Sequence to fold (115 residues):
Amino acid sequence: MTSIGTDITTKNINGKTVIIPSAPLTVKNSVDLKTVFNDLMKRAITDIILDMGQVAFLDSAALELLISMQGRLKQADNELILLDINAVCRDILICTRMINGFKLISRHGTQALEP
Fold:
């Protein structure tokens, strides 16, 4: 497991790299998430899951970063997977019409969460 500051860790689970923020994703820590993501991309690691289980909310800087991450992963023939997104973050994605831009999965089942 790798830790960046106190808010973001990464670990490898079954060949997938899981990024685990432990705080809301905002302009304050989006730079840290971007650094972690860029480091993974430089190492050609594109099988990425963003564990949203501890993320209470997202701001516009985080949304912009998620779109950028998704675009870069799609260029690498992959996609950003959001794991265990809470109702608040899900509603933010719905209100911004970004909900269909990401694959959402739940730890409690392998099905994608429907908007």
